[in-house]
Amino acid sequence: MSNQIKNVAILGSTGSIGTQTLDVIKGNSNLFRAFLLTAHSNADLLISQAIEFVPEYAIICDTGKYLQVKEALAHLPIQVLAGHQSIIDSITHPDIAVVLTAMVGFAGLEPTIAAIKAGKDIALANKETLVVAGEIVTALAKQHDVKILPVDSEHSAIFQCLAGEENNPVEKLIITASGGPFRGRNVDFLANVTREDALKHPNWVMGAKITIDSASLMNKGLEVIEAKWLFDVDADQIEVIVHPQSIIHSMVQFKDGSIKAQMGLPDMKLPIQYALTYPDRIQNDFKRFDFTAYPNLTFEKPDVDTFRNLNLAYMALKQGGNMPCIINAANEIAVAGFLNNKIGFLAMSNLIEECMQQIAFIEKPTLNDYLNTDKETRIFAQNFIQTLPLKAIHY
Ligand code: NDP
Ligand code: MG
Question: What is the pLDDT of residue 243?
């Protein structure tokens, strides 16, 4: 690695990925500096992170919290800004080397595009950006010669399996899924699950949105779309297999039938670190995997009849255009509705399907079309939730 300290901008530093990224930076302060931190509304955590890491910028999206952050950091040489636009403006700072996108949802799209246009490498956790506008984002990355380094554990695994295989054709990607807390359950069971049940992921501790996505298999659907854009493969070259132990993080099958897998204990700090140090690997003290502690690594087909979201995502990917943007927006509203006890677990798929049928399809969307599709879908989905008859809450 070069001796120069790499300045890292962390979008969403107060979240699960953001805080683990700061752990990696803290453990390697000879290599990395947290240069820019952002939060949506968690001012208290942003303030304590800024006091500890003294970044150049601390940005709070919620403008109502600006004064609180500004006053708390007044004694430090930190520029405190507020609002979404401030992120887009400051992400282009010439000293930033890499932008780690760890905010959740569609909100990551515009800052990521601004960073790419400014020539910043992207360590991408915010999968929704590629789901919504994968074609535009990957084309822009090519045009500006920036790397998109996957942080998502499955995509990091595939990326690691592909290292050194640049000229070897891929037959298929095999993405592993834990199956989430409801693996093996049927529709009758799912009709009555609560947000608390769904928030208990067996292997990973993550933010609320991705935890619900994992329980509903939408996370895997989003990851299939993410993989299409990161690795330039067709939908039918991407297979999902349930592997409840989450030890094999994903695999690549090459043209000769050989399969490479990347393995390890489930710990997001590893893919985060690899994205920041790529192409190098560096020492760490993360807990090591012991084969004898896991004598049975098992695999099974996903139950797509019960967990319909995975198939909806494949359908959206095959239809292309703005369809993945529609399912992403519909899913964000569905997950928020479920978390707020407005709709039941199974109704999330119904809502997404309804949006896929009702929102205008655009075959070749521009960025503006994506912004409009996102807005339109959210409004439609919100209204749909409000008009759902009470009994439909658990359909
Ligand atoms: P969290 O909910 O834990 O954190 C989200 C972060 O984004 C917080 O800093 C939050 O700020 C900020 N944020 C939320 N909404 C907005 C918004 N509208 N505008 C700007 N900032 C916002 O999420 P995770 O860390 O779990 O996930 C982040 C991304 O990484 C997601 O796209 C997820 O799919 C992906 N990912 C996560 C993994 C994980 O293990 N957690 C694994 C693989 C991918 P505040 O704290 O103020 O609300
Ligand atoms: Mg993942």
Answer: 98
pLDDT at 393 over 80: no
Task: Set out the domains of the chain in order of their start, with CATH numbers.
Answer: 6-150 (3.40.50.720), 153-266+288-304 (no CATH), 320-395 (1.10.1740.10)
358 sits in the region (left: phi over 0; alpha: psi -120 to 50; else beta) called alpha
Question: 210 CA distance to ligand 2 centroid (A)?
Answer: 9
**Which ligand is nearest to the Cα of residue 180, counting in written order?**
2
Whether residue 279 is preceded by a cis peptide bond, meaning omega within 30 degrees of 0, is yes
Q: How far apart (Å, rounded) are the C-alpha atoms in residues 216 and 226? A: 17
First-to-last C-alpha distance (Å) of the chain: 54
Q: What share of the chain in percent tops pLDDT 70? A: 97
Nearest alpha carbon, ligand 1 atom 40: 206
Q: Is the CB of 42 under 6 A from ligand 1?
A: yes
Q: Are 227 and 153 in contact (CB under 8 A)?
A: no
Find the length of the chain.
395
CA–CA–CA angle 53, 56, 61 (5° rounding): 90
Please provide residue 35's backbone torsions phi and psi, each rounded to the nearest 5 degrees: -95, -30
* Helix intervals (H) in the chain: 16-27, 43-53, 66-72, 84-90, 109-117, 128-143, 153-162, 187-190, 195-198, 208-216, 218-231, 269-277, 309-319, 323-339, 347-358, 367-387
Contact (CB, 8 A) for 263 and 250: no
Name the pLDDT band for 391 (thresholds 50, 70, 90): very low
